[in-house]
């Protein structure tokens, strides 16, 4: 047992959900009816999340983020989000991370960076940065685009971000600053705010240190929602791809947070590649599940089951052919609209 003040990590008592799946893969159905269990998930989520008063109305228009698609640089752009929303009506979508400086210094061209179609709701803007003034201004500028939540990146291990940029996952080493940053962000928006982070950085990877980060950020700011990538980050020069593969997953850290911070909401991220695994995590008690590259590389196989299996909604009956037809119509409508042949066919067809 590891102790941190009132926090403890009892690893021996934890059964990871992926082990349950391997033992009995038929246990989790892909088509769960809208029964008491599904309703309870939605109800308990709203009871657990403590948002600003102004933010509750905006967030409650949509079903809660039981399933969300991770923010991925150069992947979760407008085109991909359009395709994803054609497949799933309820999955929460995240933008690529936008640096606060980009938003501030591109005030004359904000539609290019912040614009999206109304159909993409519910949608979360993820921003990154290490200067409070720019974070405040970027959040204020983003208000006109009516995002449903603002997320702060404390998890990106890219050398460009965590190295020379001095933000992303490196900020986990300075929880006091993150708390101040979240206060500044929250003060400049009327929607909920959240943090996406890892479970540790380099040798700062104990459960105690993770608890210290969560406690300080939530104490110093209105942040009540944390997305936890259940791997630590290594900042010794390995690639972002290796940082998604080499550090081991420690789901026990995530589930211990649920117990030790009952007034906060936590979404689990990392190593979850299907709706079956997402449902397994939710049944183990996860407040929400975030899926990354599996949702990009296999959009139909992954997102095609989210609305029915996760949210208990009736099937829309839409076929892959119909989705492709609608996406083609979208592509035809946006080709070259930014000038200089941008976006081009390659960019639109990428998803």
TrEMBL record:
Entries under Pfam families matching the protein: Dus
Query: What SUPFAM superfamilies is this protein classified in?
Result: FMN-linked oxidoreductases
User: What's its EC?
Assistant: 1.3.1.-
Identify which cofactors the protein needs according to its UniProt entry: FMN
Q: What class of enzyme is it?
A: oxidoreductase
CDD domains recorded for this chain? DUS_like_FMN (cd02801)
Membrane-crossing residue ranges in chain numbering = none
As for what it does, the entry says:
Catalyzes the synthesis of dihydrouridine, a modified base found in the D-loop of most tRNAs.
Q: Which family does the record claim for this protein? A: Belongs to the dus family.
Please give the name of this protein: tRNA-dihydrouridine synthase
Question: Which species?
Answer: Gossypium hirsutum (Upland cotton)
Q: What taxonomic classification does the UniProt entry list for its organism?
A: Eukaryota, Viridiplantae, Streptophyta, Embryophyta, Tracheophyta
Q: Which gene name belongs to this protein?
A: LOC107938347
